[in-house]
């Protein structure tokens, strides 16, 4: 019996590959960097399944070449790199990994928030650079979560888990803005507000929404001007939600106190970018889900999505559209 063909766009762990190789004929890009576009197009003409990651743009050009494609499985919760309209036209199934990275991303976001508001990166650099002279009453003081109002732009699984963790810091209130009221909000003690109130009232404003045309550039100069001067802005969603030129102005003009970013546009952010020049801006290289157990689970689920779809069985985690 001829095995279905699967193309894997990045070097994967042995466990995930073993899941695929049991039932499929697997071809993979062996590099740790993104697969070159020409290489991808050269190898996908006859494949039945595509195992991809968020750096792979799967658009009409790719889909036109991959004429036998039956399933795409992405090792991510976000799917803005997939042309869903074109995929839907072709009746191709899509798998993704939403549940697996919730806790890891929530943990990282809390860490990023603390690193920003308590100036941890700046303090570490000061210690290494010989600026640590003696204990001083107000040196390296930051802002505290205690008695603070924390706002969430987007309050899905990840936002809710961040909120649960932050409540242990004795925050005053949790606010959120989303399209629909969340049933879980009552248990967390979160209050739904409109966007204007979220901006005006939040001491810490955390972005953890999905990225689409309605959220693109949502945080621009107008939004930053409406925030508190002592506000800390955190983004662990997608870089495109923020107008980065406007964020530079907001930090330069002290419209907000500081910013912590795990996502940027582009990625990687050029090392000469203006945001790197601010001591009150902490930038991480998109490591929200970068916990070993999380990435292993994501990789395995991505493989299982493909194998089950090609067997004609229900996928463990199918994107419904």
From TrEMBL:
InterPro entries: D-isomer_2-hydroxyacid_DH, D-isomer_2_OHA_DH_cat_dom, D-isomer_DH_CS, D-isomer_DH_NAD-bd, NAD(P)-bd_dom_sf. Residues 110-288 form the D-isomer specific 2-hydroxyacid dehydrogenase NAD-binding domain. Keywords: Oxidoreductase. Pfam families: 2-Hacid_dh, 2-Hacid_dh_C. SUPFAM superfamilies: Formate/glycerate dehydrogenase catalytic domain-like, NAD(P)-binding Rossmann-fold domains. One of its GO terms (molecular function) is oxidoreductase activity. Residues 6-319 form the D-isomer specific 2-hydroxyacid dehydrogenase catalytic domain. Belongs to the D-isomer specific 2-hydroxyacid dehydrogenase family. PANTHER family: 2-HYDROXYACID DEHYDROGENASE-RELATED, GLYOXYLATE REDUCTASE_HYDROXYPYRUVATE REDUCTASE. This is Glyoxylate reductase/hydroxypyruvate reductase. It comes from Cryptolaemus montrouzieri.
